[in-house]
Structure formats: structure tokens, C-alpha cells
Design goal:
Rossmann fold; four-stranded parallel sheet; 11 strands; 293 residues; Nonspecific Lipid-transfer Protein, Chain A
Length: 293
Amino acid sequence: MNDQTTEIYLQKLIERFKQDRISQQLLKDWEQIICWDIDGRSYFWRIGEGEIKTIAPQTPGFTLRCSGEILQKIYNKQIPFFLALWVTGEIKFEGSFSDAFRLGYLFLNDKRKRKIVFLAHCFLNMNTRFPEGADFEGANVPLMEILLKNGLGIVQMPCPEFLCLGLNKTGWATRPAEELRACFRKVAEGVVDQIQEYLKLGYKIVAIIGMNPSPSCGVEVTKGKGTMLGLNQDTSEVKGYGVFIEELQGLIKERGCPPIPMFGVRRTLPGEGGLEEKMREVEKRISMNMDIL
């Protein structure tokens, strides 16, 4: 490959980045001089202020070495860039592994859809449910099948009751209400940290899925929230958020995150039935959110 052809392919890569909103986000806080050594000839990029520019020769902080044939295949997405860099050795590099990973995401060429859901813990782990509150051996398989069928990554949120009350919930109604709420808020902070990181890198959060009518993770309805907080002995079901979802929603707003779709899936108790109807509603909500995104 001659100099002119190499320059054309490198410029085409830059133009592709300009059209990719996610790549621009990844570049926002990164400054680096990149040297491409293609068939023994050097070409230079400056990465900074959210863009890539071709520049005159300078001392590079990171160097990539490959053939013109490999460069062409990278542009045509015939070879995954990071695999060539990390696995096969078709691209050699000098510099930090941090920069190598950053470049890998700029050239991302795999099957991920970058669409995820944040899911209440016990849908994936029924072992944290209350006594005789599980109608599945380990996880709600029908719900998982729907999410996986739609190509969604599943982020399992921590169980706030497990972390703040213990597995057998002996702390129920014994911890002071504000102390328990503060514990739930701390758990929620970790979830919002993850949400912000995904959003920063251009991922779409299709939904936060809670469990109705949990006193902690209920979305549309909650049951026994006052008893858990030790405020009363009312176990009736009422409209509104559980404590954890309240704290989660509050933090999302406080940190200025964009609105995130949120809904609850009603838990299924042994012998209760109605699972198919619940799953049809999930299909409907997921499909609607996917269309909006």
C-alpha cells in the first residue's frame, strides 16, 4: 500500500469517528499523540478536545505498527481491531495498556448492542426472597428469556434488604427508620455510579426493573414499607415506590441523569399464577422502550 492510499484509509477512520456520537464521547477527556507505523512509514494523529486530527510528526505517546493490508481490513471491519492488537499480534503497539483499551473502544467491532436493563436482585436470585416467597428454583427464567431474546445486557442491582437487614431479615423493623434509609441510599449510590458510567460511554438504559409490591424495590406499588422501617404494622398494598426505589430515583435526579424508564414486574408467589400475563406486559414495556431509544 502506497503513502497516498494509507493516508486515505487513516482519514476514512477519522471521518467514521466524526459520525459516531459514542466515539466522540470516548475522546472527550483523552489527549494523546498516536503514531501509525504502516509498512515502515509513520503517520501521526492528535487526539484531544473530543476529536482526532492528522498532524505533522511529533514525539508520540502511543505507537501502532501494522501492514497496509491490516489497516485496510480494520477499516472494512474484516478484522476486529482490539483482537488484532491483543490476541493475534497483527498490530504491535508501544505505550500504555490504558491507551490500548481506549483505542479498542474507538474501533469497537463486535456484537454488543449497548442496550441494558438494571434489574431487581431477586429476579436473578430467588434465594434472597422472604420465607416461602419464591416460585422459582433459582431465577425467574421466563423474565430472563425475554430480556436475553431482546439482546439486552442485564445488570443485577444489589439486594438492599440483604445488605442492610441480612439474608433472613432479622433486622426487619429493628433498625431505626433513618438509619435503614441511609443504608438503602448507600446501596443506591453504587447503582447510580454504574448508571452514570454506562451513560457516559453512550450505552442506552432500556429500563430499571423493580419488583412490585416489594417494600424496597416496588415501583408502581409497595407493601409493608412502614413495617420494614419500624413505623407501623400496616401490611396493606399501596401505590408508590419502595424505599430503595425512592432513594434510587432521588439520586438519579440529584445527579442530573436523563430520565430513565422504570417499571415494576409483579412477583409470583407459589400457587399464585398469572405468570404469562405478567410476561406479556414485560414484552410490551421492553418493546416500547426499545422503540423510543
